[in-house]
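FORM 7B - TANDEM STRUCTURE REPORT

SECTION 1: FIRST PROTEIN
SEQUENCE AND TOKENS:
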Amino acid sequence: MITTLAAQVAIAVENQRLLHVVEGERERLSSILASLPAGVLVLDPLTYKPLQYNDQIEHLLVVRLTAINRFDPATYRIFRSGTDALYPLESLPIYSVANTKALVASDDISVMMEDGSTVDLLMNAVPILNDDGSISAIVAAFQDISALRNLERTLETNLRETVALYENDPRAGRSRRSRGSAGSGARSACDPGCQRSLRPAAR
């Protein structure tokens, strides 16, 4: 009897020790996540519910994460950039990694804010694999790329306006025609001389 009791106590002590180790690792991971500039989210690979995350991800999504809600586009208002369509679930990197078991990235993600504005995001997702190849967790990193997208849109708009201005400017048309006429005349005037210059030299 005492032997059985001693064994049970030993198991309980070991479990307590492991619990302390796990809690210590969890706190260390939380500290690391908090120090990162990007929004980071750790998900359960089966339920896709948050296991851990930092403050930056809540700032980017403008919503409070809980371990109750599954991470999906509808819940967190995640759209495909430039459209009013929710991002396809199967194409979202955190779901794609279940099939690829490798890094998946997407830069065409937008989050709808409460005021109707959008934030453009780059999402990278990678699985954490067990020794047997199964996925133990999914880690996703989110980065705000709105400034880059705005710059791209501005450059595209300026290019379109410049091309339209050039095409609609009558002076540009006359200039093209003038250059064409001048080039033709130059060739015509030069033709006789050119032909003479191409005659074989006298031996």
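SECTION 2: SECOND PROTEIN
SEQUENCE AND TOKENS:
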Amino acid sequence: MILSISKTELLALLEMPEARAMIAEIAAEHVLQGALGRGRYEHFDIDRLQSLAAAISSVEFVAGAMPRVARFPNGDEFLKAMLAIPAPAGLVLEFGVFRPFHWPDRGCQA
């Protein structure tokens, strides 16, 4: 359902405790379904929870071990920032390998 109201009307609605409670309930349902893989009265999706737990563990490590490290919204922004840093003579930047490159004339496929 798409609702079309003005910003003023929305702000007036949000002043009403019933409207805030309804929005909180809808938001909670989306969190349960999206993040935890279940509706309010269903079983949890263990695989999704395992991924969520791993993500939380990674975030805790990064926040604790590297609190001042710059973060980038995507790989392109990261690459631009890294290429803008002049490397000392003789050093090379390495960005890892997502998929190995195989030369076509050797009969290998990527």
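SECTION 3: OBSERVATIONS ON SECOND PROTEIN
Residues 83 and 93 are 9 Å apart (CA to CA).
DSSP finds four helices and no strands in the chain.

SECTION 4: SIGNATURE
Preparer initials: ____
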